[in-house]
Amino acid sequence: MVGLAVVVALAVRTGPSAATWAAAIAAVIACLPPRWSPEPADEPGGSAAEDLRSPRLDPWVIARSVVIVTCCVVLGGWRTADAWSGLRPDVVGPFDGWALVIDDPQPYAGSTRVIVELDGERFESWHRGRAARLRAGSWRAGEWVRVVGERNELDAERSERVAWQHVVGDFELDWASDVLTGRPIDRASNRVRAAIERGGATLPGDDGALFRGLVVGDDRDQPPEMIGRFRASGLSHLTAVSGQNVSFVLAAAGPLLVRLRPWWRWFVTLGLIAWFVSLTRFEPSIVRAGVMAGLSATGFVLGRERTPLRLVGWAVIGLLLADPLIGWSVGFWLSVGATAGVVTVGPWLGERLGSLGPLAMPVGVTLGAQVGVVVPLVWVFGSLPLVSVPANLLAVPVAGFVMLYGLPAGLFAGAVAESAPWLASAVMLPCRFGVRWVDTVAVVAARLEPGGAVSWCGWAVLVVAIGLIAARNRGRHGSPSADR
């Protein structure tokens, strides 16, 4: 399954290239375990035991593996070509009508970016000037806005950067007026986010913006300084919603879910996952986690195998074939890499770091996540913060508490913020301490991060130290079989 996921990923990113076919051949070989079957003895003295030791590969297994892998390559390449061909606007020029707001407005230095859908195609619209930014900043995903403007094509570089959002062009807004609410699910999501925003407003300074980022991925009001220090400390996955939020939502609903019959539990679980994915605006990391959680719930109700690495493989294959452009999202690959590292390298290291005592598994999981994201991090950002290991050990448990407690607390605080502000502040007090702790860890870690060659030397020392500890503890642990 993992091999097929790699083949599909390469087919989506590079088409039927040499690397794709090399991975396909490797996947076929990996899918061909020797089949032990009795062979007729050539000599009268041959024993049955010797015959049973004769290996033979089943030709049907070979043919099936070749067909499956080839179909993955062809289907992945075809789906990608089809998706890229649809990234050009069918019509350019003047537009006068209703625009559907796809995502919440994103503020930048001196401008605000909004993705809108015009006649079934997505365009990005940039709003500059105080009045224009205030007007666009009040829109919410799912709303309809009456607009007049001009549709234009994007240059090749910009088109590739926003491809994962299915944006086909640029929309220059000349005039906007009426705003209508959207579908019931959009209205419900906007009400929940508005309540959490009111609850987060009870926190001082920028803590409210970080709180909303931790709980529902609303990072619009996070200042550049906050984003910079979280990135420098290796905690950037906390400034916006990540896949672990899905786990916390399901954990919070666990007492209710365990009381339901299996099929009702499955139905409610899928509904809860779909609601949270919609609430977080279909962020790639959340979509990946939601698909994995849905597959796990389905496997449970059907009594099928649900190993984590297999779920990662199925999720990657399904998402890339359904939406190949998601393969151009850095957040998607960071999420996939971190998850794969946590479920494979993390437990493996944790078992071999027994001398660290209760820190063995947390350190192993943290290092596993870092191993999983090293390629996209270095490729895109050119760095791998050395302080990310201690920073994650200190910040992630507290951030997890904020994610778990913050959603119901934020909803309650938002509901009573106007009538009983003192009660809202009291309910949000644990979140205030938690958010402040996470931000303080990011501040200190960003200051301690050496950067440059010193950081890479530090990683080399850390790898050697982990290797020595693992070698010292060799043989003191079990040897779980790998999931293929």
UniProtKB/TrEMBL annotation:
Location of the ComEC/Rec2-related protein domain: 214-469
Keywords for this protein: Cell membrane, Membrane, Signal, Transmembrane, Transmembrane helix
Signal peptide: 1-19
Topology within the bilayer: Multi-pass membrane protein
Domain of life: Bacteria
DNA-binding keyword on record: no
Subcellular location: Cell membrane
CC per GO annotation: plasma membrane
Pfam family, one: Competence
Residue stretches spanning the membrane: 263-280, 311-336, 356-381, 393-417, 453-471
Principal place of residence: membrane
Sections of the chain in a coiled coil: none
Keyword Cell membrane: yes
NCBIfam families for this protein: ComEC_N-term (TIGR00360)
Name of this protein: Competence protein ComEC
